[in-house]
Amino acid sequence: MRVHLPAEMQSRPFENMGRHYTSPIVHAAGAYGTAPYQHSTLTLRELEAARYRTALINGCQTCTAFRGKRDFPGLFAAFQGDLDNSVYTHGPAPDEQFYAQIENWQTAPGYSPRERLCIRYAEGMGQDPHGIAQDEAFWAEAKAAFSDAEIVELTYSIGAWMANGRALHVLGMDAVCSFVVPVEERV
Fold first, then answer.
1. Where are the domains of the chain?
2. Among 1, 27, 84, 118, which one has the highest count of C-beta atoms within 10 angstroms of its own C-beta?
3. Separation of alpha carbons 183 and 77, rounded Å
4. Rounded to whole angstroms, how far apart are CA atoms 48 and 52?
5. Do 13 and 60 contact (CB within 8 A), yes or no?
6. Any idea what DSSP says for residue 12?
7. Rounded to whole angstroms, how far apart are CA atoms 6 and 92?
């Protein structure tokens, strides 16, 4: 890690960063980062498509290792979320092939048109925000597939993952951070 965190806090660095440094800012980042999972109206696969493409662009090891269905319980336990009233319950979970093919989303089978748009949007925001903002073909497709509320929701969700994933990565926390609840802590 690029910043010091006391040894007793290193097992859960992201959770404990806010206890040790700039608590209101880190807690706000945590709330922003978990809000998409708690409040999204999108399907789990749509949200995971955008999140995982963002994770690959950011280079965050924690984010690329995270799997929605498997790891949501640990994430919600860490941030006192309501798992039963979250995106966790919005449809089937992606399988490993879903994650493995994200970088080849344009030609890989198995993605719905909305999932492809989520990936395309995450890629545009992460790699070419000026281009995606001016891509009239993308916006025509997005407006036909999503409501304005869903577009705003997706935009701010991608923004949350960009911010938190990049922060974890540049601070070196992504090599040691996990939202998987250790077996001894599970109820």
1. 9-182
2. 118
3. 13
4. 6
5. no
6. S
7. 39
Q: What is the rounded average pLDDT for all residues in the chain? A: 88
CATH of the domain spanning 9-182, picked from 3.40.50.11740, 3.30.460.80, 3.40.1370.10, 1.20.1290.10: 1.20.1290.10
pLDDT for 176 equals: 62
Please state, in angstroms and rounded to a whole number, the distance separating the CA atoms of residues 34 and 32: 6
Structure tokens at 92: 């089937």
User: In the predicted model, what is the mean pLDDT of residues 56-79?
Assistant: 86
Indicate the pTM of the whole model.
0.88
C-alpha dihedral, 134 to 170 to 166 to 17, nearest 10°? -150
**Would you place residue 136 in the very low, low, confident or very high pLDDT band (cuts 50, 70, 90)?**
very high
* Contact (CB, 8 A) for 97 and 89: no
Which token pair is 167? 């922060």
Per-residue pLDDT tens digits for 138-178: 999 999 999 999 999 999 999 999 998 888 888 888 766 55
Burial level of 68, CB count in 10 A (0-12/13-18/19+)?
Answer: buried
d(CA 71, CA 4): 26
| Cβ–Cβ under 8 Å, residues 169 and 1 | no
